[in-house]
Amino acid sequence: MLVSVFILGILLYLMTGGTMFQAKAQLYLYIPDASGLELGSPVEVDGIKVGKVTGIALSGSRNPDRTVRVTITVDRDTLAAIPPQSWAELSVMSPVGDKYVDITSEGFEKRRPNTEIIYREHPDMFKSLDLSQFAQQLRQLDAVLADIESGRSRVGQFVMGTQMYDDLRRRLTQVEQDIRTAARTSSAVGKALYSDVLYRQVLGPLVNLDTALARVQSGQGPAGQLLRDPGAYAQARATLADVRRTVSAAAASPLLQSDDLYNQLNRGLAGAIASVGQFNQNRMLANPLTYDNLAGWSNEFAAQLRDFREHPQKYLRVKIF
Known about the structure:
Elements: H1 2-15, E1 24-31, E2 42-45, E3 48-58, E4 68-75, E5 87-92, E6 99-104, E7 118-119, H2 125-128, H3 131-150, H4 154-160, H5 163-183, H6 188-194, H7 197-218, H8 221-228, H9 230-251, H10 254-257, H11 260-280, H12 283-286, H13 288-310
Parallel strand pairs: 2-6, 5-7
Antiparallel strand pairs: 1-4, 2-3, 3-4, 5-6
Helix pairs in contact: 3-4, 7-8, 8-9
């Protein structure tokens, strides 16, 4: 018998999760209705089971929110996880409506045994639902479905008709034709994809550049000789030095350094301009008759010279004694 009692005690200890001999503490919860709640219903704190319901009875209070008194038994060590500011609600744990006590912890102080837990009623979906708004949403949904069934909307045309489908097929066919046209070898894109025309166009300048660099590297041409022959480089430097000296000498010339020569040139040019003006004011040039007489005499003299060259026998006379 002693062995049987010992084995039974071990089984009870294991079945209770090792908490059979731990110190217990009771807490109280006042609720308006205990439907769905029964003895042995679990008690959880932030989703972790800490105890169970050990008593359900009428409280005798006239307050409708405190009609039922629920006794909760938890391990004394778990009181630290249920501060005085914590609150509880009844949550559904199965499709048939079974409920359990769900405690949400708040605060940091330690709770004492045999105290009350604040109760908050779980929000009811049908109590918080605005029926007029819900009916309006149903009417809007019914109107949308009616438009779809009648084919008035774009979605209805796509679902009930074939026009959008046919348009989509035509567009896809056109895109496919465009891709095939672009991929043909006769088109520009096709030539670039299936021939080496573009490759040769890109490769040609690169080959020419490589050839030019190779010629320069081998010492061919002026650039190659300049790079490979230090004498050519020295000659180029000497030429540049001569150019710099010439420029320096020109910059140091009296014409650029002083305004005297510039003023003398200006005075000489002014005198020449005045002489030309006086010559233009001469009476001989001012009278057009003098110019016409000189021009006529010049034309006659030129005509006589031309006649002399063509008919010299008219002017040469030989006299024999």
